[in-house]
Backbone:
């Protein structure tokens, strides 16, 4: 990530997958617990490197349980790890599972936090284009740009309404796809800055990985 390129916006803040994941995990575990999200293939997603002195609170679609991290085999993927996404393989069958709805709680929280992050990207992309000109006209006022931002507002409004109603399992994929479509539009509007500083491209990549992860 290039750090020395300033994004011209009063509301600029750097968006990171790690922060979104950590903020969401607080809804299901306390700050001192090592948290992991599991799927049906025995893959575990977590946002910190494994500390072999601690147990991990493992959350799946139907249960929550604490297991030893010695039961995990880390998958060293530097391009993911540098952005705060870590994957491990569960090496044992987990027994004595405690049934829980915390998976749904976590999914609701992470979609809500992804929505907030996307909304921030939309705001400072709009601000940035308000300070850029094409043929003496603010870029943000061009008809084609206004049309794109109208699409963004429709997506944000649609997702916000569903989040307020509490997200159902069968809505997760739809909502994530909507937010990914939003980031695609914002990336086009931001141009190179979607890569250099506003993090839309990188964030989009991690949302896609997350969607694929929870689908299996």
Residues:
């Amino acid at each position: 990530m290039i750090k020395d390129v300033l994004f011209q916006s009063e509301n600029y803040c750097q968006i990171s997958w790690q922060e979104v994941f950590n903020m969401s995990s607080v809804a299901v575990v306390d700050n001192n617990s090592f948290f992991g999200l599991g799927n049906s293939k025995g893959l575990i997603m977590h946002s910190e490197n494994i500390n072999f002195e601690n147990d991990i609170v493992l959350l799946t679609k139907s249960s929550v349980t604490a297991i030893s991290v010695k039961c995990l085999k880390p998958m060293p993927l530097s391009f993911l790890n540098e952005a705060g996404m870590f994957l491990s393989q569960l090496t044992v069958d987990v027994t004595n599972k405690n049934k829980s709805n915390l998976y749904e709680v976590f999914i609701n929280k992470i979609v809500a936090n992804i929505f907030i992050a996307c909304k921030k990207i939309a705001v400072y992309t709009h601000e940035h284009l308000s300070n850029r000109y094409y043929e003496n006209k603010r870029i943000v006022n061009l008809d084609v740009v206004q049309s794109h931002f109208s699409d963004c507002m429709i997506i944000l409004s649609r997702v916000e309404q569903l989040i307020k109603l509490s997200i159902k399992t069968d809505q997760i994929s739809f909502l994530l796809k909507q937010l990914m479509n939003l980031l695609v539009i914002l990336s086009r509007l931001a141009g190179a800055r979607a890569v250099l500083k506003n993090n839309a491209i990188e964030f989009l990549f991690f949302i896609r990985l997350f969607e694929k992860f929870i689908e299996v």
